[in-house]
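FORM 7B: Structural annotation worksheet

SECTION A. Query
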Amino acid sequence: MFKKILIANRGEIALRIIRTAKEMGIKTVAVYSTADKDSLPVRFADEAVCIGPPSSKESYLSIPKIMAAAEITNADAIHPGYGFLSENDMFSEICAKYGIKFIGPTPDQIRKMGDKITAKDTMKKAGVPVVPGSDGLLKDVADAKKQAKKIGYPVIVKATAGGGGKGMRIVWKESEMESAFSTASMEAKASFSNDGLYMEKFIEEPRHIEIQVAGDRYGKACHLSERDCSIQRRHQKLVEETPSPFLDDKLRRKMGDAAVKAAESIAYEGVGTIEFLTDKHRNFYFMEMNTRIQVEHPVTEEVVDFDLIKEQIKIAMGDKISGKNYFPELHAMECRINAEDPRKNFSPSPGKITSFHSPKGHGVRVDTAVYAGYTIPQYYDSMIAKLICKARTREEVILKMQRALDEFIVEGIKTTIPFHKKLMKDERFRAGVFDTSFMNSFDLSDLPE
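SECTION B. Predicted structure
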């Protein structure tokens, strides 16, 4: 059993980890930047250490400062949460070097799945379906044109070290390739210090389906069914749900089996997510693996009654996985509440929250670390809360979500609550007829208050 866990993160995920650790009888250490000195994780952790100014590079991304905080507090494990250093193989390696357990996969597993080219090759060898694409990195524009002819337009050019939609361009015909290649390469270099690009067939009418997995150091893995993350904007997820209204039982089992095969092929240790794209013909293809806890993990927790943070910690302690392959009998949905103004193209809206009231009731969960009087910093991700509802059917979940959104009060800043209110009434969404391009045709001009 760990005696003390340092949480190398902030906001709602830091608070989420603190709560589970306390329930397990484990002491906690919060690290924080000066911008987060009044945050709830700082208040509720057993100890708190300031690690620098607001800039992420000088605080939450500073490995020396985090390791120093672990040393002075005698923490014997570090939980990285999501984002920041959660998928940094060097951080995992340094933790191991200094005898502190990184609650997550091994450095080698992070490396194997972090680089998209390597991950795709690994999945091919494991027999997991992958999107047709280039063999390795593209050498130059001429090579890109040659590969595109072989694959067939449309294609998508992607940064090998990418994420969040950066360094990514869709190319519909050969005349667009030169501009797309140049722009994607420059964006990849600026965002990831790596201008390497690869190419895949562009999947038309795609659904973004991810499978939650857990694996232990003994080579066993299980899945906890899927989450549909197709409602997204600029490759950033807005709503997640399980089960997917698109999948039938046969496809659900095939994708679950493929995800377990993927995890066991690298002897994956920890919880993670195998992300797939499905096309309109119900073919599915491996896209990437997230070797960390996901923002949307509560959606899964609500339908299988399973604490994924607790499972992460137990696996890190050397326990065997306690789960089995799950298929949901309930339905759950999560709306991400961001400090953004959807009426102004989702522009950030940092500032002081003057009034805050979160909804309650049966089947309603809110994960947040904000409160009335708290100031949302301008330096970090804009998500301030996650509203999760569960019920027996998708129709009941949507009705419950509508009621909960009506009760959710956040004053002093703009939020995405009005967008979610309108989405819940959209006929296409309610019918489950949508793909990742849904937001391209969603009208934001008449949002409710």
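SECTION C. Observations
The domain at 207-441 is CATH 3.30.470.20 (D-amino Acid Aminotransferase; Chain A, domain 1). The chain has a mean pLDDT of 95.

SECTION D. Sign-off
Analyst initials: ____
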